[in-house]
C-alpha cells in the first residue's frame, strides 16, 4: 500500500493507471490536507515474494 496527497492529481492518476485502488481517505490535521491510502490488488492477493 501507499499514501498520496489527494491534491497530487498526477500521482493519483499514475497509481490508478497502474492498478492501485483507493481503500481509505484520511484528513491530516498537521498538513490540513486529505491523503489517500491506495492498494494494489495483485499484492493483496499474493501469498509471498518470488
Alpha carbon gap, first and last residue: 18 Å
Count the helices. How many?
Answer: 2
Counted beta strands: 3
Going across the biggest sheet, name each strand in turn. Answer: 1-3-2
**Whole-number count of domains:** 1
Global mean pLDDT: 90
Radius of gyration: 12 Å
Share of residues in strands: 35-45%
Summarize the main sheet: 3 strands, antiparallel
Helical content band: 25-40%
The secondary-structure class comes to alpha+beta
Q: What is the helix/strand order?
A: EHEEH
Shape verdict: flat
Low-confidence stretches are none
Q: What this model shows, in words?
A:
The chain is an alpha+beta fold and 50 residues long. It has one domain (2-41). 26% of the residues lie in helices and 38% in strands. It has two helices and three strands; from the N terminus they run E-H-E-E-H. A three-stranded antiparallel β-sheet has the order 1-3-2. The radius of gyration is 12 Å and the shape is flat. The two termini are 18 Å apart. 6% of the residues are buried. The mean pLDDT is 90.
Compose a concise summary of this entry.
This is GNAT family N-acetyltransferase. InterPro entries: Acyl_CoA_acyltransferase. With 50 residues, this protein is an alpha+beta fold.
Amino acid at each position: 500500500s501507499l499514501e498520496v496527497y489527494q491534491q497530487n492529481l498526477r500521482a493519483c492518476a499514475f497509481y490508478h493507471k497502474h492498478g492501485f485502488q483507493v481503500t481509505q481517505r484520511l484528513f491530516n490535521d498537521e498538513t490540513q490536507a486529505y491523503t489517500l491510502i491506495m492498494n494494489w490488488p495483485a499484492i493483496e492477493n499474493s501469498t509471498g515474494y518470488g
